[in-house]
Amino acid sequence: QAVPVIAIDGPSASGKGTVAARVATALGWHYLDSGALYRLTALAAQRAGVTWDDEQALAVIAARLNVRFDSDSVWLAGEPVSAAIRSEVISAGASQVAAWPAVRAALLFRQRLFRRAPGLVTDGRDMGSVVFPDAQTKIFLTARVEVRAQRRYQQLRENGMSASIQPILQDLRERDERDSQRPVAPLRQSEEACLLDTSDLTIEQAVEKVLAWHGEAV
Ligand code: C5P
């Protein structure tokens, strides 16, 4: 019997990470934030002086990432980098490195290692389509771009960073475009995925919905 997986895919700042982490806690399952691996690759490359257009060098960095996740931090080569990987520069870099097939291939095997009993909840762009195509529950979680920009804005402000809506909105539109137009593993809702639009839902309501769908799937 394969270890069960709940795959939650969707665009940037849709809230999928928060929802996925809470579903994992509710079920007592493991959680994988796959976007963090692309962010870590972008950060490790920057530190090694490798540019985000050097596909082969990036693939080597992705394959060798010395990373550890614990309940509230991400570590790269022993250093806490949770804040560093969320910066605007690294967010843009992550979306560029994620467009390279060799980088995606290098991270594929790593992601599958997170599938351990009693189960895995994961979020990203291609969790249900490429990485865990046999996931029991597949969800495409999204929200209107204006709502996502507002959420990102609030999150930045709460973390003490200065921010304004317009550049965030533009950045999200560009990233949506890049993530959905790329030839490899583009972001799109697969036919089997349940659509969850969280524009008018609280986090708790979104979590309830995922748990309810999952309950129906098993
Ligand atoms: O989800 P998050 O915004 O942290 O992801 C950062 C970037 O990594 C995204 O813009 C996307 O390009 C890429 N990504 C991906 N496939 C995934 C997860 C993230 O291409 N499964």
From TrEMBL:
Where does the record place it? Answer: Cytoplasm
- Where ATP binds, per the record, is at G10, P11, S12, A13, S14, G15, K16, G17, T18
- The protein's superkingdom reads Bacteria
Name all Cytidylate kinase domain ranges. 6-212
Question: What's this chain's function?
Answer: Catalyzes the transfer of the enolpyruvyl moiety of phosphoenolpyruvate (PEP) to the 5-hydroxyl of shikimate-3-phosphate (S3P) to produce enolpyruvyl shikimate-3-phosphate and inorganic phosphate.
Q: Which family does it belong to?
A: Belongs to the cytidylate kinase family. Type 1 subfamily.
Question: Whom does it interact with, and what assembly results?
Answer: Monomer.
What is the protein name stated in its UniProt record?
A: Multifunctional fusion protein
Q: Which gene encodes it?
A: cmk
Q: Which residues of the full protein are shown?
A: 436 to 653 of 653
